[in-house]
Hints:
mainly alpha
Amino acid sequence: MSSKKFSSSAxxxxxxVDDCLPSTSGCSNSKQIVNTPTSPTKDSIKTLGVTAxxxxxxxxxxxxxxxxxxTTLSTLLNKEPRSMxxxxxxxxxxxxxSDKDSQGAYLIDRxxxxxEPILNYLRHGQLIYDxxxxxxxxxxxxxxxxxxxxxxxxxSLVQQQQAATMxxxxxxxxxxxxxLIKTSQMTELRFQGVNLAGADxxxxxxxxxxxxxxxxxxxxxxxxxxxxxxxxxxxxxxxNLEGAQLLSVKGLCANMEGANLQxxxxxxxxxxxxxxxxxxxKGACLENxxxxxxxxxxxxxxxxxxxxxxxxxxxLAGADxxxxxxxGSDLQEANLRGANFKDAQLELMLTPLHMSQAIR
Length: 360
């Protein structure tokens, strides 16, 4: 009776783990060896309630808008852990990666050129982009992918760019009139280096204004009063100055290519010459203009229309008048020394050219 109780007690004290261990009978001095895995498996981790960390340097390919980018999981996960890209590949997140292409790259339907600065930012934390890219486009991609650390920086750059664009925008007629009203006649008004491209300034009184280096491309200055203005090195290409008053203007090396100066008056009754030395009047129209005494030394007048112009006592020394239309013009006492008259039209001139004027 007692032996049965002892046997029952011995059986009840044996644990299930003991049943799994190898027998030690006959080897009293040998050690017990238990084979355990060197690292927990994914299933065992989930059973224990621990999240499996992805391999940090595992490579992954992304097909963004048809262009494949290859990077590491650590790049996508570490810099912006709450971004859409991080959530796509973080195992604890419920968000699943997209479909794959034939090469195994994850497909993302976005612009590749705007994605590249985003990926570079995730790599090294710096915003680097090509100058031809739109900052607004990069900003939209940053918002789409949830790159929160980059969005404020891009928004600031976009604001700076917009402010700079506003500064570079040409002034309007209203802006010029406002400046004229606010400025005393005793004060010199300067539009030096100002952008007035395409502005409608017709019939305005713009006397004595400094337009040096100003951009007046395709500006409408018809019938405007530009007496005593400084137009030195100003850009008046293809501008309309028909009927404008240009007494004693200083237009040294100004660009007036293709400009319309028909019927303009350059002659100052006081005898002060308008200075257009080195001016570019290639293809310009100066028909019926009064240019008596104007200094056009070494000016470019190729293909210009000077028909019926008054060029008395004008200085055209070294000027390029190739294929220029001078028919019906008055060149009496004009200085033509060294001027180029190749293929110029000289019909019906009021006064014949004199040999002492040394044309070639």
